[in-house]
Write a structure and sequence with these properties.
By secondary structure, the protein is an alpha+beta fold. Strands 3, 6, 7, 10, 11 and 12 form a 6-stranded mixed sheet that branches. The longest helix has 30 residues.
């Protein structure tokens, strides 16, 4: 038997039943989207397993898609077999190939922009579009999974092999990147590529969703420090230039990172200027009104909260790399929150509020702020 025939036979033995392939493809794509979205909130190296899982699942999607295409290729290539659902199948295939191709290109360091979007942003867009497309495609031939398709020991071995192959493939590309010294070799564990230099011009101006306010007049600017503090205050831009400095890494979810020297005022000092955090007076259940979070709100309404202890060590920056912050980078003041991703570094901060409860609404605001 020829080597190609032996390989084909081995692959055929590994291939799950058709119904298992269909449902596995949907599950892998959904898991890819979930791990990708959650990874946006992970900025510390200890979170690397999540990113490895995301990449391993991507390799699994490639294999599952290959099995799927080998089975249905005649329905795509023979016009006499086309149905109304064929257009949906083709669109799903385009989204899948787009997500996989942009992901692979980014891994090897290709750094191009398509209008406002980086290649990584395009990858995310393809991935998010793929979830409803796969679901809609599955609905056109909806068949419930059968226990017999998944209960055999061989099935467990197949999926373990898929994930293991995904991890091994990703590790292999790291070696290739290092050996060839490609641009992809300098990526962080998050996938972000470096931006070198110091100051405003060293890294791109990006905003989450649609935040694009007019420049803020420094003379008229006021920062309110309020909430569960004993003496709420309003501070001017000059009051924030306290000269506290810290080196922090900003890792943007659009696919880049930069290490800069930031200066401004420590948030803990801001809270001290407002008399310090304190429980709500006169509350019979004072323990439910203990200061626990600090919420930072932008002039656009965008906001994010940090646990009190973390917030006190954060910085409200007015300068970067020795330069006064430009408007695009959040002037007069932006949050600098080490170990947080860039979308959590709130720009154009106008209110700092000590709260007792976690702000679930901030997740909604990240999707709608900036839209009129």
């Amino acid at each position: 038997m020829a080597a190609t025939d032996r390989l084909r036979t081995a692959l055929d033995r590994l291939e799950p039943p058709p119904r298992a392939v269909d449902w596995s493809l949907f599950a892998f794509v959904a898991a890819e989207a979930a791990t990708g979205l959650v990874s946006f909130t992970v900025g510390v190296p200890e979170g690397w397993p999540l990113f490895w899982l995301h990449r391993a699942l991507g390799v699994g999607v490639v294999v599952l898609l290959a099995w799927k295409l080998s089975r249905v290729r005649r329905r795509l290539t023979d016009p006499t077999l086309w149905r109304r659902s064929t257009a949906l199948s083709v669109l799903t295939l385009v989204a899948a190939v787009g997500a996989l191709a942009t992901g692979v290109a980014w891994v090897f360091g290709l750094d191009v922009r398509l209008s406002y979007w980086t290649l990584l942003s395009v990858h995310v867009g393809f991935g998010l579009a793929l979830v409803p497309l796969v679901a809609a495609h599955a609905a056109t031939r909806f068949r419930l999974p059968r226990r017999v398709d998944f209960e055999r020991r061989r099935t467990a071995v197949r999926y373990f092999a898929l994930l293991a192959a995904g991890g091994a493939t990703y590790r292999l590309q790291q070696g290739v990147n290092d050996a060839l010294d490609t641009a992809g070799a300098d990526r962080r564990f998050t996938g972000s590529q470096p931006r070198e230099g110091a100051g405003n011009g060293a890294f791109p101006i990006t905003s989450w969703v649609a935040d694009d306010p007019d420049p803020i007049d420094r003379d008229g600017y006021r920062l309110a420090v309020e909430g569960l503090v004993s003496d709420p205050v309003e501070l001017t831009a000059a009051d924030l230039a306290a000269g506290h400095e810290t080196e922090a890494l900003l890792d943007c979810t659009s696919g880049w990172y930069t290490v800069q020297e930031w200066s401004g005022v420590r948030v803990g000092d801001l809270l001290d200027a407002a008399g310090g955090p304190e429980a709500a007076a006169g509350d019979e259940e004072a323990t439910d009104r203990e200061p626990a979070y600090v919420r930072f709100t932008s002039v656009t309404g965008y906001r994010w909260s940090l646990p009190l202890a973390e917030a006190e060590d954060a910085l409200l920056a007015t300068h970067v790399g020795g330069e006064r912050l430009s408007h695009g980078h959040g002037a007069p003041a932006r949050l600098v929150a080490p170990d947080r991703r860039g979308f959590q570094w709130v720009k154009w901060v106008t209110r700092v509020e000590v709260r007792s409860e976690y702000d679930l609404g901030q997740w909604v605001v990240t999707l709608v702020s900036g839209f009129d």
